[in-house]
């Protein structure tokens, strides 16, 4: 009996269901300490105890014995130390395997469009100019015009052969990660926790695309510390990918007659980015924009906009690792979750169900839904 595998699966399932260790123990009729030791892989549980646990969680006993593939070519950095790093990697590995199996079953794999660009970028010295060039060329690969805002980044990435997984994790220190093609990807995972702004979800997706294009040689699951230079380059890429220079200048000039505050909000809505992303771009030529926006916000709302970086800490053409805005409460005129939605995996599941290639319970497992939620979704299909 592999107690570590059992523990990892228990944790993955429990956290997916949003259940605390205490609640899981109570449902199983065991002490919290007993449950914790089993989940941490510190004790060998009796079969009767496992049966009580799975009954309480509403799963099957065999769910605890599914082996978890170990990802290796992963770029997984976080601003804070994460105790659940192994859980996230295990969940991503299972999701990737489910996705790839479904693609093969339906013969609907999508070619990765950025192979040649990645090779070209590996011959260019790293830095801000490489990041801007990469952003411009990436948009060409996606057939985006120079002045075209990105309305559906998840859809664009999926159409280019990149799998997108919105994972919900209560952490303001983890925004996303990416997996190389050689390890079942390419894939981009974005933390869509309710307290993180949708603008940040979108920026994180673009940021991880930057890493896939620019830093593929740094994909190593053993490395958890952020490289400031790599993060800076990926941030610059994301900014210019989401807001090309000519498009940004054109939209900014169009708002010339509005107040500074309204100009920032209008441009941010056009490009689906955080107000911080707009301000960082403006700060390349005017470092006082931060003070100006803070002052304008106070005049407009009567409140102080919190969690703003001091202008003196900024450098032209650069971004700090904490940007753009994290908490939704700090994002003026924020987007809604409908502005960041992946749909390819859901579409593949529906096709497989309609062709009777998978069961309803298997579809629920792939989409990380419980059976009742899956039934509700199926009944809503037209």
Automatic annotation (TrEMBL):
Domain (HTH cro/C1-type) ranges: 10-64
Endpoints of the signal sequence: none
CDD domains linked: HTH_XRE
Domain of life per record: Bacteria
One term of GO molecular function: DNA binding
InterPro entries linked to this entry: Cro/C1-type_HTH (IPR001387), IrrE_HExxH (IPR010359), Lambda_DNA-bd_dom_sf (IPR010982), Rad_response_metalloprotease (IPR052345)
UniProt name for this protein: HTH cro/C1-type domain-containing protein
């Amino acid at each position: 009996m592999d107690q570590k595998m059992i523990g990892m699966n228990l944790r993955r399932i429990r956290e997916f269901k949003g259940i605390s260790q205490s609640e899981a123990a109570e449902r199983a009729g065991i002490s919290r300490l007993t449950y914790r030791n089993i989940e941490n892989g510190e004790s060998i549980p009796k079969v009767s105890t496992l049966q009580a646990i799975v009954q309480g969680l509403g799963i099957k006993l065999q769910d605890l014995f599914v082996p978890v593939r170990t990802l290796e070519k992963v770029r997984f950095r976080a601003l804070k130390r994460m105790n659940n790093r192994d859980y996230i990697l295990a969940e991503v590995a299972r999701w990737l395997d489910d996705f790839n199996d479904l693609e093969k079953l339906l013969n609907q794999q999508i070619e990765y469009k950025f192979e040649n660009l990645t090779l070209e970028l590996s011959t260019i010295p790293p830095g801000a100019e490489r990041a801007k060039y990469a952003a411009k060329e990436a948009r060409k690969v996606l057939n985006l015009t120079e002045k075209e805002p990105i309305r559906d980044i998840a859809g664009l990435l999926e159409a280019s052969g990149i799998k997108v997984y919105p994972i919900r994790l209560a952490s303001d220190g983890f925004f996303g990660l990416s997996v190389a093609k050689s390890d079942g990807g390419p894939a981009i995972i974005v933390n869509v926790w309710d307290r993180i702004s949708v603008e940040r979800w979108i920026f994180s997706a673009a940021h991880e695309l930057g890493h896939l294009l620019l830093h593929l040689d740094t994909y190593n699951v053993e490395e958890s510390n952020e490289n400031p230079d790599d993060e800076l380059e990926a941030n610059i890429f994301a900014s210019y990918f989401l807001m090309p220079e000519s498009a940004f200048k054109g939209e900014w000039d169009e708002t010339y007659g509005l107040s500074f505050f309204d100009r920032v909000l209008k441009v941010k809505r056009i490009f689906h980015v955080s107000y911080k992303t707009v301000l960082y771009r403006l700060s390349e030529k005017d470092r006082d924009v931060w003070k100006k926006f803070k002052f304008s916000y106070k005049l407009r709302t009567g409140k102080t906009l919190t969690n703003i970086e001091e202008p003196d800490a900024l450098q032209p053409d650069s971004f700090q690792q904490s940007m753009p805005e994290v908490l939704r409460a700090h994002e003026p005129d924020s987007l809604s979750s409908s502005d960041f939605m992946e749909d390819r995996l859901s579409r593949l599941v529906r096709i497989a169900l309609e062709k009777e290639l998978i069961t309803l319970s298997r579809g629920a497992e792939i989409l990380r839904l419980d059976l009742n939620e899956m039934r509700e979704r199926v009944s809503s299909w037209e």
